[in-house]
């Protein structure tokens, strides 16, 4: 993997921020976009745009081909058996809400259980809280180990015959740990439950095979994997999707409409009411092409190297605490410096051109579990280098000194 | 953009040695506010008598800017009438928008003027003042 050639393809990286070359370490929040993705979206609007699935004219056909072509690419990318099992959504949040609002509300009853973990992003917590409130189901949590990970023994003890849904993130956006999805799927299925996976932080970084994992639903976002904002996807098992009701009505999703009754199209269209996110899907397709050209194995390897390097360098800084396990970690390091608030850390780093995230990372319950109000997080992607991590480490040492020895 | 524009010595002093941190034994109003995007939070307690803020305390968690601003705010409003306090809040808001505002004897507050060059941090500085407004405005109706 030629890191220099990859960086060349990201126009945004070649600028100065506050007088320093930009070091972008916030890809877990949103990744940057290669020229091929930006061009694909522009070309679509300049050459091929019309509404999809309705125009008889040539542009309508081209737009439809582009949109459905992107769906094929997504299916292939996550190894779904067919493109019909890919529903385009606005992102992971919308995808998880679709499963909760349609599937879960239909199947959950009083006394049933929904099992998640305390490390979930708010988007994989609040939809289930709402389902529990609406249906009388109970929300249960697989407890966390001291390093923030879960064990299969605890999962087995938490998932029971009453469990209808297990919903877990593949990779934690705070701890960076990889959850044992394949084994959890097996556990869930043994108890007759379905498993929903939040793939927002895994899909950009590693090979995903929804059939091998044997998951029932898998949600992810385009903008964290070099694609545009506002596009993501939900994969669903065919038999489940086919029995799910839409949650948005009108536009693209109808079959027959009469004055008092209507019927819906087949999957996936019945879940895509309104004019879909055509340009977003085209951009996501281009992002997948870009990632596949580099190769997901190469990306995985590069990031593992970067993450280990960052973990080692940062753990050598006195007074710096890293959260989450040392091993089996993907793409990010979350930390705090003693007596310096993460906002202050992020501001100091910003003056040196380094972009990191500070805050609760949409994981307030996990922050409480960690007994902190907020943390700083550096996250990595294909375009980051070990030199950038060295600059991060230097800046963190300076931050510590700046706050430790007073300000002029 | 210079760090020293933001983190002036007086700000760090209020951060490390906050004034009026704690709880009143008997408060007239208590306001809890948080900043949902970043997790900063403040609990402000005010003692009110005959249109005057006679005492103010705060607890909370947050960055140096939000906590030092809370410390300065509580110092500034003690002994002030509601109108004076709201006027200070208004002037602080103008300061955050980059306007040239003088705080007379309250020069500590002016040290926060550098925050306006860091747009992402303005909401940190205004959190305590927003809590103050939330506590006082209902009293003036």
Structure description:
- The complex is a heterodimer of chains A (408) and B (141).
- Chain A has 408 residues and is of the alpha/beta class.
- Chain A has helices at 3-8, 35-48, 58-77, 92-107, 126-135, 152-158, 181-190, 210-213, 238-242, 278-294, 296-315, 342-351, 364-370, 386-404; strands spanning 16-17, 20-21, 23-24, 86-89, 113-116, 138-141, 163-169, 194-198, 217-221, 232-236, 254-257, 262-264, 320-323, 332-337, 354-355, 357-359, 375-379.
- Chain A has two domains: 3-26 and 295-404, Aspartate Aminotransferase, domain 1 (Alpha-Beta Complex); 37-293, Type I PLP-dependent aspartate aminotransferase-like (Major domain) (Aspartate Aminotransferase, domain 2), CATH 3.40.640.
- Helices cover 40% and strands 16% of the residues of chain A.
- Helices cover 43% and strands 18% of the residues of chain B.
- Chain B has a single domain, classed as Alpha-Beta Complex (Sufe protein. Chain: A), CATH 3.90.1010.10.
- Chain B has six helices and three strands.
- In chain B, α2 packs across α3 (64-77) and α4 (82-96) runs antiparallel to α6 (122-136).
- Chain B has a three-stranded antiparallel β-sheet, covered by helices on one side.
- Classes of the chains: A alpha/beta (408), B alpha+beta (141).
- The A-B interface holds A 18-19, 341-344, 347-348, 351, 358-360, 364, 367, 373-374, 402-403, 406-408 and B 1-4, 6-9, 11-12, 37-41, 61-66, 118, 120-121, 124.
């Amino acid at each position: 993997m030629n890191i220099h050639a990859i960086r060349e393809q990201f126009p945004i990286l070649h600028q100065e921020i506050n007088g320093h070359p930009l070091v972008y370490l916030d890809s877990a929040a949103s990744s940057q976009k290669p020229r091929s993705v930006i061009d694909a979206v522009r070309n679509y609007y300049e050459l091929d745009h019309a509404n999809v699935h309705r125009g008889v004219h040539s542009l309508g056909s081209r737009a439809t081909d582009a949109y459905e072509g992107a769906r094929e690419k997504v299916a292939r990318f996550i190894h779904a058996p067919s493109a019909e099992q890919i529903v385009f959504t606005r992102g992971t949040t919308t995808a998880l809400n679709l499963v909760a609002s349609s599937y879960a509300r239909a199947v959950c009853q009083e006394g049933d259980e929904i099992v998640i973990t305390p490390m979930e992003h708010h988007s994989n917590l609040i939809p289930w809280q709402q389902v529990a409130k609406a249906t009388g189901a109970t929300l249960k949590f697989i407890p966390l180990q001291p390093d923030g990970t879960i064990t299969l023994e605890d999962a087995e003890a938490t998932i029971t015959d009453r469990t209808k849904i297990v919903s877990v993130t593949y990779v934690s956006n705070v701890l960076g740990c990889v959850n044992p999805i394949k084994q959890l799927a097996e556990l869930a299925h043994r108890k007759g439950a379905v498993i929903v996976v939040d793939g927002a932080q895994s899909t950009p970084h590693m090979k995903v095979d929804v059939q091998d994992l044997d998951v029932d639903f898998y949600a992810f976002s385009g903008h964290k994997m070099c694609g545009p904002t506002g596009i993501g996807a939900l994969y669903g098992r065919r038999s489940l999707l086919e029995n799910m009701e839409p949650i948005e009505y009108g536009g693209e999703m109808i079959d027959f409409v009469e004055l008092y009754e209507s019927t819906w199209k087949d999957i996936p269209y019945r879940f895509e009411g309104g004019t879909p996110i055509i340009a977003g899907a085209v951009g996501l397709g281009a992002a997948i092409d870009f990632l596949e050209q580099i190769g997901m194995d190469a990306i995985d390897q590069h990031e593992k190297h970067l993450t280990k390097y960052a973990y080692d360098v940062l753990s050598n800084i006195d007074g710096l605490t890293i959260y989450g396990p040392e091993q089996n970690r993907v793409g990010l390091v979350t930390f705090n410096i003693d007596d310096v608030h993460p906002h202050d850390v992020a501001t100091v780093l910003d003056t040196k051109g380094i972009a990191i995230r500070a805050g609760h990372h949409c994981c307030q319950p996990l922050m409480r579990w960690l007994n902190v109000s907020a943390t700083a997080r550096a996250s990595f992607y294909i375009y980051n280098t070990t030199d950038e991590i060295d600059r991060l480490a230097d800046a963190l040492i300076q931050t510590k000194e700046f706050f430790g020895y007073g300000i002029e | 953009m210079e760090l020293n524009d933001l983190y002036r010595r007086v700000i760090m002093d209020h951060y490390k040695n906050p004034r009026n941190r704690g709880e009143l034994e008997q408060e007239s109003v208590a306001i809890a506010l948080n900043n949902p995007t970043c997790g900063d939070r403040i609990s402000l307690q005010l003692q009110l008598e005959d249109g005057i803020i006679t005492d103010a305390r705060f607890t909370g968690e947050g960055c140096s800017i939000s906590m030092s601003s809370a410390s300065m705010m509580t110092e500034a409003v003690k002994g002030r009438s509601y109108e004076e306090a709201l006027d200070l809040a208004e002037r602080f808001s103008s300061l955050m928008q980059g306007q040239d505002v003088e705080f007379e004897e309250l020069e500590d507050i002016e040290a926060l003027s550098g925050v306006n060059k860091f747009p992402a941090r303005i909401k940190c500085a205004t959190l305590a003042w927003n809590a103050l407004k939330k506590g006082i405005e209902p009293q003036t109706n």
